[in-house]
Amino acid sequence: MYDTREVIILTETKSLYVVLSRSPTVLSRVIRTMTGDSYAHAALALDRNLEYMFSFGRRHVSNPFIGCFKRERLSETVHSTAHGLPGLVIELRVHPLQYGCAVGLIEKFLFDSDKYGYNYLGLLSCIRKYPRPHKRRFFCSEFVYYVLQRCGACDFQKPRGRVRPQDMLSLKGDVVFRGDLLDYARGREAAPSIFPPFAPAAAT
């Protein structure tokens, strides 16, 4: 005889959040000019408050040429210097096993973060529509798509190196916010977040 509580846990859906934005940085403006896209950056969050949001981006605010895998916070780094951060948040409902898969992949990126780097050549190739994937290098939307596809949450039928932030608009999810992401962050500061899915040291 099985435990009905386990059935409830396995049948309840969970949510992943894809965050798209366009910052005032030079790189963001160049990408938008070359592609005509509205958004130049993508990140993946594990909670609605975006407390656990991850992507590939610049390591330091003042240096756009050194990128890495990192936990992103809208209230810190390059985002805090902007007067506004236009963007949107897409809620993607997934099976608990898919959510667990995403957490597991992100944990791997976190614990092996020194082995991963920013895929600058891949980003340029993506803009020019000639994908150039690298086993341990990613740009922002390439990472988001890699996790979602590996977990069976989406499939754009294209190599990960050809996925731009704008492509995320075709996800079968709900846009739960559109506007200034800095306002979104301030508006949810007092709201309780999910129980941390990682050990504190790993997610710092």
Determine Rg (CA atoms, Å): 17 Å
Shape, principal axes of CA atoms = globular
Q: Please outline the major beta sheet.
A: 6 strands, antiparallel
The main sheet orders its strands as 4-3-2-1-5-8
Per the CATH scheme, the topology name is endopeptidase fold (from Nostoc punctiforme)
* CATH uppermost class: Alpha Beta
The portion of residues assigned to helices is 25-40%
Q: Beta-strand level of the residues, as a percent range?
A: 25-35%
The CATH architecture assignment turns out to be Alpha-Beta Complex
Query: How many strand elements?
Result: 8
**How far apart, in Å, are the first and last alpha carbons?**
42 Å
Question: How many domains?
Answer: 1
Overall pLDDT, averaged? 79
Tell me the structural class: alpha+beta
Q: Counting H and I runs of at least 4 residues, what is the number of helices?
A: 8
Q: Low-confidence parts lasting 5 or more residues at pLDDT below 50?
A: 1-9
Write down the secondary-structure element order.
HEHEEEHEHEHEHEHH
Present the secondary structure layout.
Elements: H1 4-11, E1 14-21, H2 26-35, E2 41-45, E3 53-60, E4 63-72, H3 77-80, E5 86-94, H4 96-111, E6 117-118, H5 120-127, E7 137-138, H6 140-150, E8 174-180, H7 181-187, H8 200-203
Parallel strand pairs: 6-7
Antiparallel strand pairs: 1-2, 1-5, 2-3, 3-4, 5-8
Describe the fold and architecture.
This protein has 204 residues and is of the alpha+beta class. It has one domain: endopeptidase fold (from Nostoc punctiforme) (Alpha-Beta Complex), CATH 3.90.1720. Helix content is 33%, strand content 25%. It has 8 helices and 8 strands. Strands 4-3-2-1-5-8 form a 6-stranded antiparallel sheet. A hairpin with a 2-residue loop joins β3 (53-60) and β4 (63-72). The longest helix is centred in the middle third of the chain and has 16 residues, at 96-111. The N and C termini lie far apart (42 Å). Residues 1-9 have low confidence and may be disordered.
